[in-house]
Design goal:
The chain has 231 residues and is mostly helical. The chain has one domain. 60% of the residues lie in helices and 0% in strands. The protein contains 10 helices and no strands. Helix 3 crosses helix 4, helix 3 crosses helix 10 and helix 4 packs antiparallel against helix 9. The longest helix is centred in the middle third of the chain and has 20 residues. The chain starts with 10 loop residues before the first helix and ends in a 10-residue tail after the last helix. 37% of the residues are buried.
Length: 231
């Protein structure tokens, strides 16, 4: 029987095989969506390969950001393309991470969660995994923070295999191969902050739906395949 473990536990302990993580109310979480909409979110993620939002949603996000912060978004695109150009992520590493994301999606979908909670967990997991392409400069303590975030995102999901550890290892592999430097990440963060300021506090509501999503995050997640080394 799976038993929740203490919140302070590190992810590789929290998500060991056969254990479901436990938590109370998560800080900073947005409103829960309705059940039918939540199930649609899950189904769309499976169809999209679970590592990025659907192309239609990415296009809507790009339109929203370019319309609300054109100059700042242009700088962000240039800096992101610069980071992508130096990446050496192999197709094998990308496919491994995509397979992990798909397996985690299936685990979330079949977990004993409400549709609303499942949709929120799915989006959080997607956000964390896609961020790995920019995480090459993280220190050990910062990776511990990432693992804790994953533990929170996978709340209520019981694993009988070491899938979460495999996913975390594959995230670190992608981070190393992407070669995004601390300076590159700093520029991208500064660009994102400038966009957020230009778009104002209601940006997360632009895309609609019951689960608020930052359009900049959605746009970025639609670009992660560009980190795959082309030669």
């Amino acid at each position: 029987m799976a038993v929740p473990v203490p919140r302070q536990s590190r992810w590789r302990f929290v998500l060991r095989a056969g254990v479901s993580t436990g938590r109370g109310v998560r800080a900073g979480r947005g409103p829960r969506c309705e059940a039918l909409e939540a199930r649609a979110v899950l189904s769309a993620s499976v169809a999209a390969g679970a590592l990025s939002p659907t192309p239609a949603l990415v296009a809507r996000a790009q339109t929203a950001v370019s319309g609300g912060a054109a100059a700042e978004f242009a700088r962000y695109q240039a800096d992101l393309q610069h980071a992508e150009a130096g990446s050496r992520v192999t197709l094998a590493a990308f496919d491994n991470l995509k397979a992990d994301a798909s397996a985690l999606t299936q685990a979330i979908e079949t977990a004993p969660l409400t549709s609303q909670a499942g949709a929120q967990d799915l989006i959080e997991t997607e956000d964390i995994m896609d961020q790995a392409f920019l995480d090459g400069s993280l220190k050990s303590s910062q990776w511990n923070d990432v693992s804790q975030q994953m533990g929170e995102a996978l709340y209520g999901v019981v694993f009988t295999t070491n899938l979460p550890d495999e996913a975390f290892t594959d995230m670190q592999t992608v981070a190393r191969e992407a070669h995004v430097t601390a300076a590159e990440r700093h520029r991208l963060t500064a660009d994102e902050q400038a966009i957020a300021k230009a778009m104002g506090p209601t940006a997360d509501a632009i895309l609609g739906g019951g689960v608020p999503r930052n359009p900049m995050v959605v746009y970025y997640e639609g670009q992660v395949a560009q980190f795959v080394h082309k030669r």
